[in-house]
Known about the structure:
With about 280 residues, the chain is an alpha/beta fold. About 40% of the residues lie in helices and about 20% in strands.
Amino acid sequence: MKIISDIQELRDHLRGQNRASFVPTMGNLHEGHLSLMRLARQHGDPVVASIFVNRMQFGPNEDFDSYPRTMQADIEKLEKEGVYILFAPTERDLYPQPQEYRVDPPQQLGDILEGEFRPGFFKGVCTVVLKLFSCVQPKVAVFGKKDYQQLMIIRRMAKQFALPVEIIPGETIRAEDGLALSSRNGYLSTEERAEAPELQKVLKEVRERVLQLKDRTSQSISEIEKVAVASLAGRGWQPDYIAIRQQSDLAPASNEQLQAGEPLVILTAAKLGKTRLIDNLEI
Ligand code: PAF
């Protein structure tokens, strides 16, 4: 595997490759990332991965400084997966001058859910992803469904800018007890790690209630959300949101849409101690 930090050198190496398959990451790779590498291999060749902890998508009180950086272990994992190039730019490589041009996703998608609790997050994500696409010029790029809103925003960005890249979604990989794999799981204490699968359990309970709603109109979707938030809070979590939304655009779902069979998704973000976890479940 070639490890490249310089944009020009990356372009020289990829010259003439028009089927490259790209997986952008922030490193600290786990089985979820590696499943995206395997998916990338099914959709193009060569596979290019990137590792870049993107300061621009972290808020001032977030974990940019403490975000786990495990480059040597990551390199070994990517080599085993047969990744052809690891693009690992420094901040100076990727942002040689202050990044004054930025991609601002539409408010109705970028400022809700994660965007409401992490202002500017999707601006930072879209800007770096557009820049990484411009460096790698892949035919396809793979993003995990665990970051459901991110996946949707990037898909729409690619479409609106007519970027010649196909966005492929990768399924969420979970531990045996149901916890979605995430680099931030490493922050959890032993007790918190034992409690963490509760997040997925609550999502499953919400799904059951929503499906029961199909036959009844007595309870509303927002009541189900409130009950779920209270249930997590009662166990010591600090939930940011549990939201039942339309899969098509993440707008709030109504009972009528549910009756009409509109595909829905439940999204959640909640803090357990100091660790903020996100997850989602499609209905
Ligand atoms: O999902 C991530 O790891 C990051 O948001 C991404 C897409 C690599 C952009 O920094």
